[in-house]
Amino acid sequence: MESSPNIQIGIVKRDKLSFKLAGKFKISNTGKNCFNVCQAGIKNGAIELTTENGTQTFTKEVSFLPCNLSADHFEIKAVTIGIDFHWEQEEDQRFQGALKLLVLDGAIQAINVLPIENYLVSVISSEMSANSSLSLLKAHAIISRSWLLAQIEKQKNLSKKEKVYKPIQQTDTEYIRWYDREDHKHFHVCADDHCQRYQGITRAHNPQVIKAVQETMGKVLKYKGAICDARFSKSCGGVAELFENCWEPVPHAYLSAVIDSPEPDKISTLDLRIEKNTEQFINSNPKAFCNTSNVKILSQVLNDYDQSANGFFRWKLDYSQKELSALVLQKSGIDFGTITDLIPVERGTSGRLIKLKIIGTKKELVVGKELEIRRWLSPTHLYSSAITIEKTNADFIIRGAGWGHGVGLCQIGAAVMGEKGYSSDEILMHYYPGANIEKTY
User: Fold this and answer.
1) Strands (E), 67-163
2) Residue 191: which region, alpha, beta or left (left: phi > 0; alpha: psi -120 to 50)?
3) Taking the model in full, what pTM does it have?
4) How far apart are CA 343 and CA 437, in angstroms?
């Protein structure tokens, strides 16, 4: 069996960076000890580092290596979390492991390097309140580990290919884009919701989280011998979405249209790719694990800033024609003129819009996939693209289901399953049918 591998996480990218080393760190390039407050900036394309011992210059990169992984840590001020989401805010954050500074696009990219198991303790504490049931925490440890290792493997494979990976398909009448981890070429994952929410040791590490990670160490989901790309979102809204409807057009059998209930009702079994069925589904209150308003359960899954949102399973949003036209212009950079209609073109298995036609007095265009639609129709992001659109005079009424892309594990639904006594294995088999659990190290 292999030992726990190291992971590189992109934390922030800035022109200037202030950080504090707490404990004993060594500078990789020189072997000299370094501690206390440090300042780093770019000068003539190189990193200029200022410490209490003076100023040094490093051409491309420099690393600060802890002498004691568990005792030493570093702190970065005002790290932005929830970038472009409704809970975006700044937070001082502390991290275990090494700090690597890299010259990237004329700025300094700060990267945290540490063992994957340490990373997972933080991810689970950051993704949720860490007071969830042990079965949910164990399930989340396995999928977070699986997702990460699958991304690392995918990055390796992409680097070997001569063909350039293109997440944008554009014509005169369509703009289709998806956002995936291939965006990161100089580290494995970022620290924000674009990948997995990671906030170092800033969040208190609940003993239950540490136990969940330790008891699942090295365990991953596999399908036909390959590690699963185990996606997850806050709330599927009642039915899960297919991977290929949100990201690259490559199907994964274990990421299927799971109905989030052990006893699906008639409304949940409708073909939600059909417009009238989606309207009926979103305007109803179907049985689903994630259909809960239980504050105790929601507080297990959602951090304080997540709970600032109102409604996860079903929600409603109103725009005037003027507001919508200005918003789409701002978010897309395309002048549609006055928007006169929004027409669903294609939906996925959960009712989520994959393609939406925007009609304006100056321009018509089909936009996709789901995240791009969510970005264009909100100052931050729509909770979901599982929406219906109603026009009343000059107003647009948007009704929606769920929170997030809806692929794979539904965090709120899984929390309810944990409270009901389902084991971690049962939770995983519900959301990833056909997959199996294997220990890799």
Assistant:
1) 73-81, 89-95, 98-104, 107-115
2) alpha
3) 0.88
4) 42
